[in-house]
């Protein structure tokens, strides 16, 4: 098989090599997939920069989801059979013409459904569903802030929050994306560039506090966000993109960690606020039935048209470095994918 192998950490240019590797062989509860499309996620950028502690050692094939056809099926995989078109969540290994997946992370995908949108229904929409539907409960009229709302995960969270009748505040790092945020249903769009985040929120929100914050940025945004939560408010931490830098270094990483602040449980009790951290790899390892449930829900709603993933760009396998640069630049909208 062909694979885009991460051979060195750091800058995207020079980090990847297209290599011929042995085809994966499915074991118990596993299947192999002949890959049509590989999805990209910001966690891939973190792994490339050496900031994702769960990443295997180099050389490494990144990738958390694929769309393609089942090639081979191991024992105990239920009714999954070769030739079926599927969307699958992979634990790395997705940047390849053949990928290995656990059967609980595989769901059939109709032939007519757009494959790039299908990749978005996996990691990003499934993470959003788990965060918004299983870890918190949204109600009509709730005030919800979604950071990085123009990305694939943010777009999914906006759609889920709007289906509950929430008032959605969406942030972006560039003013060019403000109109896009409004077009996908964000009620109050906030540009973080060159502004005081807290002051800007209070300006557009007329001083009212939030019920839920979905935060994939981390750092000082988490600390400041906690001050914007009202009693009963929940902070859902989904990532640490604030730690990403073109030239990562230990001192900058330490500053980023310290900028989160040190919320104490007693303070959270007194203020009646909560902090929730989400790592879908851990959920897959310990509660695979949750992955299956959430992925099936998202595929069902995507195929029915209730969810509308936004395609931000499709790259060839030879241009995987360009795809990473685009994702790292934070200038993209929606889902990025690699076509094999």
Number of strands: 16
Q: How many individual domains?
A: 2
Determine the strand fraction and express it as a percent band: 25-35%
SSE class: alpha/beta
Low-confidence region ranges? none
Q: What is the level 1 CATH name of the largest domain?
A: Alpha Beta
Arithmetic mean pLDDT: 93
Helical proportion, percent range: 25-40%
Task: Specify the overall morphology.
Answer: globular
* End-to-end Cα distance: 11 Å
Structure description:
By secondary structure, the protein is of the alpha/beta class. It folds into 2 domains: 171 residues, Medium-chain alcohol dehydrogenases, catalytic domain (Quinone Oxidoreductase, Chain A, domain 1); 156 residues, 3-Layer(aba) Sandwich (Rossmann fold), CATH 3.40.50.720. The protein has 12 helices and 16 strands. The strands form 3 sheets. Strands 3, 5, 6, 7, 8, 15 and 16 form a 7-stranded mixed sheet that branches. Helix 5 links the parallel strand 10 and strand 11. The longest helix has 16 residues. The model has no long low-confidence stretch (mean pLDDT 93).
Outline of the structure:
The chain is an alpha/beta fold.
SSE layout:
Blueprint (H helix, E strand, L loop, with lengths): L1 E5 L9 E5 L9 E10 L2 H7 L11 E2 L3 E9 L11 E5 L8 E5 L3 E3 L6 H7 L1 H13 L7 E4 L5 H12 L3 E6 L5 H6 L4 E4 L5 H9 L4 E6 L4 H9 E9 L12 H9 L6 H7 L2 E4 L2 H7 L1 H16 L7 E6 L3 H9 L6 E5 L1
Helix pairs in contact: 3-4, 3-11, 10-11
